[in-house]
Amino acid sequence: MHSVPRVRCPGTLPIAGQDDNNDDDGESGPYVRDTEYEERVIQVRRVTKVVKGGKQLSFRAVVVVGNNNGTVGVASASAKEVAQAAQKAVLKAKRRLITVPLTRNALSVPHAFDSYFSGAKVLLRPASEGTGVIAGGAVRVVLELAGVRNGFGKQVGGSNPLNNAKAAIEGLRAMRTLRQVAAERDISVAQLLGLPPKKESSDAVPV
């Protein structure tokens, strides 16, 4: 297993990783750092592509982008230089941002969920205030940049960082709060929870 060099490119924080996966390339363009979003590189790998003239060497970067307040995205891209690959991945991730519903007090996920992507399986569980983020690898990065401050995340499938990050994204995308579920069913939150309807007070003085 070869070691992956730690790199620093504009607007990214280096986090080395291993393993590989296939993903399409994004379009390159001028890179301008957006201060609203934090960017972290969770994997940099050297990959090869067999062509008619031989092998083409390039670098693939996996990047997580989030605003630490309920918005996060994951993408990967390849380029001949590490910095270019990271920049392309950042642009792709910003086009794939999702909104994550967070609990008001604990800033945690609203409910438990098991998510899958390819060979990866990620378990997401809510936690009370003061617990912190208990997770590792790519799942921890996704939860932190999504704004989760208390929660559990565990990788029980494959160890591929890209697959685990995308599995965490799919789990966060599927999260729903009680208000969202009640609105989708066109009922009240009390009806959703099976609570008796509130009775109107009979002590009101007629006007």
UniProtKB/TrEMBL annotation:
Domain of life, per UniProt, equals: Eukaryota
Q: Which GO terms describe its molecular function?
A: rRNA binding; structural constituent of ribosome
Sorted alphabetically, which keywords does the UniProt record give?
A: Ribonucleoprotein, Ribosomal protein, RNA-binding, rRNA-binding
UniProt GO cellular component terms: cytoplasm; small ribosomal subunit
InterPro entries to which the protein is assigned, alphabetical: Ribosomal_Su5_D2-typ_SF (IPR020568), Ribosomal_uS5 (IPR000851), Ribosomal_uS5_bac-type (IPR005712), Ribosomal_uS5_C (IPR005324), Ribosomal_uS5_N (IPR013810), Ribsml_uS5_D2-typ_fold_subgr (IPR014721)
- GO BP term, pick one: translation
Q: What does the subunit section of this Swiss-Prot or TrEMBL entry state? A: Part of the 30S ribosomal subunit. Contacts protein S4.
Put simply, this protein is called Small ribosomal subunit protein uS5c
The organism of origin for this protein: Auxenochlorella protothecoides (Green microalga)
Lineage, opening ranks: Eukaryota, Viridiplantae, Chlorophyta, core chlorophytes, Trebouxiophyceae
